[in-house]
Amino acid sequence: MSLQGKHILLGVSGGIAAYKSAELIRLLVKHGAQVRVVMTHSATQFITPLTLATLSQHPVGLDGEDLDEPMRHIDWARWADVVLLAPATAQRIALMAHGFASDLLSTLCLAAECPVVVCPAMNQAMWSNPATQANVARLEGYGVAIIGPEAGEQACGEIGAGRLLTLTEIVVQLTAHLNSAEQCLAGKKVMITAGPTIEAIDPVRFLSNHSSGKMGYALAQAAYSAGAEVTLVSGPVAMSAPAGVTLVSVHSAEQMFNAVQASVQQMDIFIGCAAVADYRPESVQSQKIKKSPEVMTIQLTPTIDILASLNDLPTKPFAVGFAAETQNIKDYALGKLEAKKCDLIMANHVGIEGTGFGSDDNAVTVLGHDLQIELPKQSKTMLARAMISIIADTYKQRKL
After folding, report:
1. Domain ranges of the chain
2. Average pLDDT over residues 52-75
3. I need a surface site. Which of 39, 66, 73, 97 has the fewest CB within 10 A?
4. What is the dihedral of CA 130, 158, 356, 231, to 10 degrees?
5. Catalytic positions, written as ranges
């Protein structure tokens, strides 16, 4: 994933994670970006401006030192393709949420017309405080992207959510956000399957699973935002399709297969996110089965494998599968990648509370034939943006 030629304005605020900004600059430059840095006064207590100026090869912006550039907050804001705040303290988030212009960094954020991305880093209790969460929600309402934080051991010795996201993941998420904003799938046709399928036993009962469709619908929104023409083939869910997305509603695995086959050859990319039932009753009773004290046996037969069926097409789209597992996640996912001849597999652990089926959050490992990217737990909306960026990037590389 590339940030080649991007102008990144890095805002560093005062927290222990400020020392990581040096390595973050190195990674951003390695990925082709030009970086300018603005530091708050408190940030200079953790790492020197000289260090960041040397790594970025640009003077560092500091409060009270802009006499030669009185319009620096405007000029630098116009120079930037994105403003990245990493780390962003609770104080910095509060200032941004309420529109304060009390220092160079806050005035730059207010003057910025480019995307703004915030990477929180603070004590776990400060992060979970309702005031901080309200400020984060306000920023998101303004269109600011929030990346992280992650959970783990903190500098204070406590354990919980609040750690700055790993620097590699910040770069991945930042690239995803910019690619989404820049229409990385412009002109492409994408088909996404989502939700569960239901397999009838009789007119009343059926076999299904716990899929809510949230991940598939988030992917549809992210793909559409990235410029794609999106067809969403969905099982029964309690959601409306994103605006601009073509919805095809189905119930059973057979119906989903037929809907996919009807137009998949016209697609550039296929993303099989649906939790398709692996089995269906061999026969469906025409009348409700009456309760009986005797043991009931239902013969099951395999459903059609939608993902594998793409290999029989004269023209196969770029294929992305999902592997929802409860154990041996990577091994099973790699096996599926090979067996079904996918281009990418999104592997996720559905046995962890707070992620997977029905949850608003998820975490996946993106696996390809020469690719492995860990996307940690985050909202499915943010995760979908990162996944679409990786899919778009890999698709373009395969087409070269």
Report:
1. 7-181, 189-399
2. 77
3. 66
4. 60
5. 156
